[in-house]
Amino acid sequence: GQPGSNGSDFYIRGISTLSGMTSPLIILDGVEVSSADLDALDPEIIEGFSILKDATATAMYGTRGANGVMIVTTKSGADLEKPIIGVRVETNITQPTKVPSFVDGYRYMELYNEAVTNEGTGNILYTQEQIENTRNGVNPYIWPNVDWYGSLFKDLAFNQKANFNIRGGTKKITYFMNVGANHETGMLKNEASKYFSYKNNIDLMKYTFQNNIDFHMSKTSTISLHLNVQLNDLRQPNTSVGNLYSAVMNSNPVDFPIAYPADGVNNWIYWGAYAGGNDQGAVNPMASLTNGYTDIFESTVMANIDFEQKLDFLLKGLRFKALFSYKNYNKTTTSRSQGINRYTLTGYTQNADGSYSLNISPFGSSNPSKPVLSTTSSVAGDRRIYFQSYVDYMNKFGNHNVSGMLLWNIDQYDNNAPGNLVASLPRRKMGFAGRLSYDYDNRYMFEVNAGYNGSENFAKGHKWGFFPSVAVGWNVSQENFFEPLKDVISNLKLRASYGLVGSDETGSGAGSYLYRDNVELNSIGYTTGSGWNVTNKGPKILQYAIANATWERARKLDIGLDITMFRNLHITADYFHEYRYNILMER
């Protein structure tokens, strides 16, 4: 739930593989995108989506079809006398569905003593004086009583969102344009500004822009441009919300205060620390929250050019379509952090007026010094170029409906990784696919699909995989003998499909180029010589070649039943079975 967290996990018909890639393929307007891209989509621009599960439906999508496919389409323009303008402004309140309850410090000490006594695990107990002084709040530095969760986390967060879109066009040009802004804040309090000059609470601004233009050059030719731009501007603490939550759970309320009072000598924060001589994993959650901030700026640009040409002058029902897509993602991260000085209470004295004088010392062997914000930065990103072309045919001859398609695509992925030669090498895939379908009088249906896909992940002789599938259907309700039942069951359809699908994702961190040894030069070394002044280094094998690595494959069977009863009650039932094999695993 942390704003800025990318990549929702969802699965189609469960997880069927032991490799690292279990998520489905996501197709946006004909082009593969990541789950983070899907997260960033403004719901206002989505026209619809569909889920493909069985072998015949996923055969056309090549190297990731084994895990299923989600297809998302965005809205397009329309020939309208007046454009349709939509404006939407909303605010929402978010809060955790469940928050743990914490006892006060004095109750914690009572329960601790009870547990240690009952289990016989030690003889160091909190004294009654400590418990009573904590209960009465005598001195929060000597007898602290810290609500760590309440100190770091808010009860709720307010978020805002605004959206503007316009849809219209003429017979020649139709358009849909959308602009959106989304402001999200997290559950962390803005505590850094109480101690330092900067703010580091979670603050995310997301800007989205979608521009879909269709140019109808003639009755048979259309060219379309789809442009999607996503900008994210995020500030957050250096420590993740998950680690801060763990720090809260690992720090009890009575070990140390958030900070001790300054003595006027040093101008830094005297953060509290565990006084037992051993952290036992406990850290000061407030110090971790406020020790710096991270700024992240992300930009994603996706541009699709789509051309469609009807070829009825050659053969009625014949059509040609081509798609070119370019996607570029960039991320710039700048982090500023400072050290923290931790102190423990070593003693105290009570003055005549009832006040207390504290003796505090640096924690452990640390040597306190003035913290200074240091800066680190990094850049990352990737880009993808995709081209697809196909011809399809659809026609009807009496009660006979025939259709077919032949497709070719090529995909290139580049990682914008500076200084990493292997990671920056382009990764390419290529695929061919075909489909032939026939139905008679909307009663008997038959379809054959086949995909022939190539991936550079595998060695010669294993690069290409062939994935066929077949599907049949019978619309029983269209038969003459079914006519008496139409008033009760208006539709009854039986269907079945069986086929082979594949995945070239190797998972387990194996990466690509599996057929070559992964060698790191000048890695392992030793020093020798009479004066120990000669050092030699040699290669280190990170991963041995896997010459026979090949496609991960899945055999999928699906048997389904569709029923419509009383015109309005729709029932769909499916039995499916998947067998996955050739899964690459690390020994």
In short:
The chain has nine helices and 25 strands.
Please provide a written account of the structure.
The mean pLDDT is 89. This protein has helices at 35-40, 55-58, 105-119, 128-136, 148-152, 192-195, 241-250, 285-290, 421-424; strands at 25-28, 31-33, 46-52, 69-74, 84-94, 157-169, 173-185, 203-216, 221-237, 259-260, 270-272, 292-310, 318-337, 342-350, 356-362, 374-397, 400-415, 427-440, 444-455, 464-475, 489-503, 518-528, 534-543, 552-565, 569-581. A hairpin with a 3-residue loop joins β6 and β7 (173-185). The longest helix is centred in the N-terminal third of the chain and has 15 residues, at 105-119. It is mainly β and 587 residues long. The chain has a 15-stranded antiparallel sheet. The protein has a 4-stranded mixed sheet with strand order 2-1-4-3. A 4-stranded mixed sheet has the order 10-11-14-15, with no helix packed on it. The protein has 9 helices and 25 strands.
Topology:
Layout: E1 25-28, E2 31-33, H1 35-40, E3 46-52, H2 55-58, E4 69-74, E5 84-94, H3 105-119, H4 128-136, H5 148-152, E6 157-169, E7 173-185, H6 192-195, E8 203-216, E9 221-237, H7 241-250, E10 259-260, E11 270-272, H8 285-290, E12 292-310, E13 318-337, E14 342-350, E15 356-362, E16 374-397, E17 400-415, H9 421-424, E18 427-440, E19 444-455, E20 464-475, E21 489-503, E22 518-528, E23 534-543, E24 552-565, E25 569-581
Parallel strand pairs: 1-4, 11-14
Antiparallel strand pairs: 1-2, 3-4, 5-6, 6-7, 7-8, 8-9, 9-12, 10-11, 12-13, 13-16, 14-15, 16-17, 17-18, 18-19, 19-20, 20-21, 21-24, 22-23, 24-25
Helix pairs in contact: 3-4
